[in-house]
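Hi both,

Apologies for the delay on this - the queue was longer than expected. I finally got the zinc ion-bound model through. Below you'll find the protein sequence and the ligand SMILES exactly as submitted, and right after that the structure tokens for the full complex including the ligand.
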Amino acid sequence: MTHFKYISLLLVVVVLLGFGVYNGSNQPHVCTTTWGFFGHKKINRLAVFTLPPELFPLYKKHIDFITDHSVDPDKRRYAVEGEAERHYIDIDHYVKPGEDPFEIVPKHWNDAVAKYTEDTLRAYGIVPWHLNLMLYKLTDAFKEKNLSKILRLSAEIGHYVGDAHVPLHTTENYNGQLTNQKGIHGFWESRLPELFSEDYDLFVGQAKVIEKPLDEIWDIVKQSHYAVDTVLGFERELTKQFDSDKKYSYEQRGAVMMKTYSKEFSDAYHKMMGNMVERRMHSAIFYVGSFWFTAWHNAGKPSLKDIMGEEFSIDSSNYIVDTTKIKIKAREHEN
Ligand SMILES: [Zn+2]
């Protein structure tokens, strides 16, 4: 498949998932794949280059696996019970306007369960706690020197780290549906990176060992959430300046003609936000590498030389789901 065809195919998938609201169908809104497939793959791939010499050769050898499987959690999120809630946290659900949710929602899972019940937490998303759990699982995989577990969990933790970096994954108004801005979710995380990320400086230097993972996870979520007002507010501002036929355009995506945000509007919005998308992507890459590094460090820095030569195969049917054949379960609480 040529590069161009491959990208076109990805775009069709992303667009079909993310822009259902514009295709004139009466399908329920589908929360998009965070960062789009394009962004997730880019983040995981670049994270490999942040790793120290003890880890780099193993990840480099399997960089295609780490890249391709960055999107598995999204592929199964509509089919696997309990998956969807791992990708976001509607943190503003827990507060009244003006209150700081990060002062109110307990950081530790048990404290949060005691305050709100587990059902409530699951209904409004658990990404910070799930990330913390994934870090433990990856640490165990390193202790066991289990190559397939290391690679699968590494690819997937990269996904959730990426998710936590996206502002609209931290709010109940995740697709602008409460403020008449439907579609903004995919616009921010898929369309903008696809159009502009070639020009981003995504050289992030070396990964670090994260001393207090849960605290840093919450910091990531906090930074994302504090950007929500800008993400929504600037789009609202700009919409006032654009006629609707200038705001949207139709583009051929493979065999499908899709309504999408015009290049002009995208460009103006992207400029208005400064380097926000770039900064969130940059941080995501750094933290993906740092989660991998931290898990290995906390496992006692096992030598990976003996699993370097190992071949492995994962029965992908266990966790990859054909999204065309499943009923969408995610975000039911919004309907
Ligand atoms: Zn996701």
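Main takeaway for now: The chain has one domain: 3-334.

I'll put the files on the shared drive as well.

H.
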